[in-house]
Amino acid sequence: MLTGDHVAVAMAIAAQVGVDDVEAGLLPEDKLVAIRALQESSPVAMVGDGVNDAPALAIATVGVAMGGAGSDVALETADVVLIADDLAKLPYAVALSQRTRRTIIQNLAFSLAVIVTLVTASVTVGIPLPLGVIGHEGSTIIVVLNGLWLLRNPS
């Protein structure tokens, strides 16, 4: 945990959330140095809400701003904004983003398959244009419904 807060406050919060490694009393520049050092070994996610967190949010692999209490600079700089100021929502946001990525890949693959099929059928068999349009529009509806499934199935 990297924070500009006093050491005692940082240790109390770290104990509540189960964080072992705490660096407190940091200036924005100190957070940048720490994040760059961590990025040498793995991707880094930075969660912040203030003006002092904006530079760190910008250089982190993924910057997450807390929306309700966040400063405008932090909200603009972050890659992700949690509307509710609840860190417990972060695993849900990660899972949703993974499901969204899979859905996008599915939709692109399906759309390309339909287009290739329709073009091939048009060239070889000579399907009528209205049938091709219906096939294409039907595939669009399926893609939209597949995307909407993310809203219906939140788990």
Compact overview of the structure:
The chain is built from six helices and three strands; from the N terminus they run ααβαβαβαα.
What does this structure look like?
With 155 residues, the protein is mainly α. It contains 6 helices and 3 strands; from the N terminus they run ααβαβαβαα. The chain has helices at 7-17, 28-39, 54-59, 72-77, 90-124, 129-152; strands at residues 45-48, 62-66, 80-82. The chain has a 3-stranded parallel sheet with strand order 1-2-3. Helix 5 (90-124) packs antiparallel against helix 6. The mean pLDDT is 88.
Query: What's the order of the H and E elements?
Result: HHEHEHEHH
- Structure annotation, total helices: 6
Mean pLDDT: 88
Radius of gyration: 23 Å
**Ends distance:** 28 Å
Number of strands: 3
Largest sheet, strands/sense/barrel: 3 strands, parallel
Physical arrangement of strands within the biggest beta sheet: 1-2-3
Which characteristics define this entry?
single chain, mainly alpha, elongated
Helix and strand topology:
Elements: H1 7-17, H2 28-39, E1 45-48, H3 54-59, E2 62-66, H4 72-77, E3 80-82, H5 90-124, H6 129-152
Parallel strand pairs: 1-2, 2-3
Helix pairs in contact: 5-6
